[in-house]
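Hi P.,

Sorry for the delay on this. The queue was packed all week, but I finally got your sequence through. Input first:
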Amino acid sequence: MPIIGKNVQNLKITHKNNKIFMFSDLFGKYVVLYFYPRDDTPGCTKEAKDFTELKPEFDKLNTIIIGVSTDTLEAHNKFIFKHNLNLELLSDTNKTLCEFFDVWVEKNMYGKKYMGIERSTFLINPTGEILHEWRKVKVAGHAKILLESIKKQNLS
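Then the structure:
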């Protein structure tokens, strides 16, 4: 399903303390929206730490970083505290965002098939349009590659 060019302005999900998180509230900024399988696993922890480390540089490019998984808000809070993360993490327990971005896929581990998040990242412009997508992301160096890509596009 083509995702580039779609607009996220009407997307919203229930967030902290049953508040509604609305993408339209982010207008005027670029958004790096990254989907990851599970809090506090080695790859997901490295990815979150890498984005946290580079956050000041993303900030200079008028870019917000938001991570999404199907973990609960409580799990997110523990993950953030344990690893001193400086990121917004959304809990998509109903898979609203996962389905919109087509990242909820069948996976296969050691011959066992199951449904889960395909590690993916999306760049959204200040009016809510999806500009770029990175699918089947490899964690090592991804945050840096994404930062360099944004710099090359002169998005700030």
